[in-house]
Amino acid sequence: MxxxxxxxxxxxxxxxKFNKKRIxxxxxxxxxxxxxxxxxxxDPFCSNRCKMIDxxxxxxxxxxxxxxxx
Length: 70
Ligand SMILES: [Zn+2]
Description:
Structural class: mainly alpha
CATH architecture: 2-Layer Sandwich
Number of helices: 2
Order of helices and strands: HH
CATH topology: Erythroid Transcription Factor GATA-1, Chain A
Strand content: under 5%
Shape: elongated
Radius of gyration: 21 Å
Bound molecules: zinc ion
């Protein structure tokens, strides 16, 4: 009797597929490569190298801010 309910659940399935696809195409903010499949221990970066690059960037910026305050 409830044909409408069946239709909406089919729609939800499509939305789930779409979301999964989007997550798969995430990119590394440092080198812009597509991230490897999860589980990725360096998430949201593609590798330990990029993680370190990003970390050093942050540290350098903090140093600069402290310098300007003097
Ligand atoms: Zn990277």
